[in-house]
Amino acid sequence: MLKWGVRIGLVLLLVLGASYLFREQIIFAVMKSQMEPANAFDVAQVPAGLDYADEDAWAALPSKKDGADFIPDQLNRQPQPSDVAVFFLHPTTYLSDAGWNAPTDDPESSEFRDDLVMRAQASAFNGCCEVYAPKYRQATLWSFMDETGSGDKARAFAFADVERAFDEFLKRIDDRPFIVAGHSQGADHVVRLLKAKITGTSLKDRMVAAYPIGFGINPSDMKEAVADIPVCDTPEQTACYVTWNSLGPNAKPFPDYIGAVCVNPLSWTTDGRSVAAEQNTGSLSVGDKVRYEAGVTGAQCQSDRLLVGDFQSDMFDDLPVNMGEDNYHLIDFSLFYGSIRKNAQDRVNAFLSAG
User: Fold this and answer.
1) What domain range includes position 171?
2) What's the CA gap between 41 and 114, in Å, rounded?
3) Alpha helices of 203-336 — where are they, by DSSP H?
4) What are the residues whose beta carbons fall under 8 Å from the beta carbon of 140, sequence distance 6 or more?
5) Residue range 45-79, pLDDT digits in tens
6) Three-state DSSP class for 90?
7) Which of these ranges, 33-37, 249-253, 293-297, has the smallest mean pLDDT?
8) Which residues contact 112 (CB under 8 A, 6 or more apart)?
9) What average pLDDT is seen over the chain?
10) Is residue 227 assigned to a domain?
């Protein structure tokens, strides 16, 4: 009996050891089984599209009461400005395996988009600009891990919606200046917009700045594709872009983060200077309880990583999704909400003063 106990113990040790050694492959396999759509991407199977002339096609508009109107109580309330507009693209909120692209009225992803994302991210720009945020047939989360080509097609299909929404946005704002901003999948689409619609055109001269945050942006690719839209090196530079990926010291970066651009959202520079938590004017949590606190964490660009310091608050202890140890992708905006808000105002003021 003792021998069998020893044998079982050894087998369990081997299984546990193999599970540890191959934990990433195991996690990937589990995610694949839960999130990969059953069939390849087929344009004939995508959900119905939207008419962007219709207000219902937008998650946020200046003419609507929506989550992008939110202002934390700790900040001075002010009339919504009208000189500049922002075109904001929400991140992936669709995690289903039901299809490669989301219906824009899917209950769970719509609630996440219209409530949490509009308040935690899009609202950062309501201090400088009128906020326009289209709904779009976003690619499902698995599209970023897919290796069959269906994911790429789903993301390209989603961008076609974004292009149509951007064209309507331009009609609505006439000849006013604008900002383009987005997070994660939204940031991917912002970069696509810069390449397809803005670089080399008169629109570039109207663009205050671009904020494609939480996506791995390759600097060499950008220099080649959008040579007239550089990385922002100073807090008041315009016609440029800023981006970062928030990680702690123990995080393993996503593959596309390797070699990516990093702009520090506390100093708005690309150098490696460390900025202390005391200089972080405000982080925002909009879960069950809204919290806005200063001094939560500092930040430092270390090559392609925005190294986030130890948290001086428990406000982010209960994130809805664990992206991995020290991976703060979900709160790229929230950690630096106050700084983003002020920087957008500073760049708009610089742009308007120069004009």
Assistant:
1) 46-354
2) 26
3) 203-206, 219-225
4) 35, 37, 92, 94, 95, 96, 97, 99, 100, 101, 102, 154
5) 999 999 999 999 999 999 999 999 999 999 877 76
6) coil
7) 33-37
8) 93
9) 90
10) yes
Q: How many domains does the chain have?
A: 1
Question: In the structure encoding, which two tokens stand for residue 341, read together?
Answer: 């808000």
Report CA-CA distances (Å) from 133 to 91, 187, 261: 11, 13, 25
Whether residue 5 is contained in a domain is answered as: no
Q: Longest C-alpha distance within the chain, in Å? A: 86
Q: Is 149 left (phi over 0), alpha (psi -120 to 50) or beta?
A: left
pTM of the model: 0.91
* Residue 246 buriedness (CB in 10 A; 0-12 / 13-18 / 19+): buried
Find the helix or strand (DSSP H, E) in which 182 lies. strand 178-183
Say yes or no to pLDDT of 148 above 80.
Answer: yes
Look at residue 354 and give its three-state secondary structure: helix
Contact between residue 310 and residue 340 where contact means Cβ atoms under 8 Å apart: no
Amino acid (1-letter code) at residue 97: D
> Does 8 map to a domain?
no
- Beta pairing class for 178-183 and 85-89: parallel
Query: Which carries the bigger pLDDT value, residue 192 or residue 21?
Result: 192
- Predicted confidence band at 132 (pLDDT cuts at 50, 70, 90)? very high
End-to-end Cα separation, the chain, in angstroms: 86
Strand pairing category for 283-286 and 290-293:
antiparallel
The DSSP 8-state label assigned to residue 346 in this structure reads H
**CA distance linking residue 179 with residue 130, whole number of Å:** 10
Phi, psi torsion values for 74, nearest 5 degrees: -75, -15
Q: Can you count the helices (H) and strands (E) in the chain?
A: 9, 10
Q: Is residue 273 part of a domain?
A: yes
| The pairing of beta strand 130-134 with beta strand 58-60 | antiparallel
Give the Cα separation of 217 and 81 in Å (integer). 30
